[in-house]
Design brief:
Elements lengths: L2 H14 L19 H6 L1 E6 L4 H10 L5 E4 L9 H10 L2 E4 L3 H8 L8 E4 L19 H8 L3
Parallel strand pairs: 1-2, 1-3, 3-4
């Protein structure tokens, strides 16, 4: 899958999973006066592989949204398994913009039942335990993606 298609696919899925901005849940950019309840309203997104072509494009588009908090890993810790695992489990949604083997490794790091994983690689495309498809194809497909983790 080419980067632009991967980017579009990831962004459609972020919205279909309930990470869409709405007037009742929208918050402003974080400021010193931001309350704890406002911070809890923002969905946390971690883009594993954000330094690559697809990751940069996903980040650029999501950074324009003020209802999301993008978690970033320090450049010197990009290969640090413990730090990646921490961010993966802190996030509400993880977008994997990695080669297949690295996506498989990252998906195995999820230790909770709330983090949603979107994989832009081909690693899980035909795996029966993963949901794959475009939500706009049918209501059943939309519901399947929305209820997936």
């Amino acid at each position: 899958m080419s980067a632009p298609i991967s980017v579009a696919f990831a962004l459609v899925l972020v919205s279909s999973l309930g990470f869409s901005p709405s007037s009742t849940h929208r918050i402003r950019r974080f400021a010193a006066s931001t309350s704890a309840s406002d911070l809890q309203a923002a969905k946390k997104i971690f883009i594993d592989g954000e330094a690559g072509t697809t990751g940069l494009q996903v980040r650029e588009r999501l950074a324009k949204r003020d209802d999301l908090e993008i978690l970033s890993i320090a450049d010197d810790l990009r290969k640090d398994v413990a730090e990646r695992k921490r961010l993966i489990n802190e996030a509400d949604c993880v977008i994997l913009c990695l080669p297949d083997a690295a996506s498989i490794e990252a998906a195995a790091m999820v230790e909770n039942d709330r983090t949603v994983v979107i994989d832009a690689s081909t690693a899980f495309r035909v795996d029966d335990d993963w949901t794959y498809g475009f939500p706009e194809l049918s209501k059943a497909q939309h519901d399947s993606i929305r209820s997936s983790k």
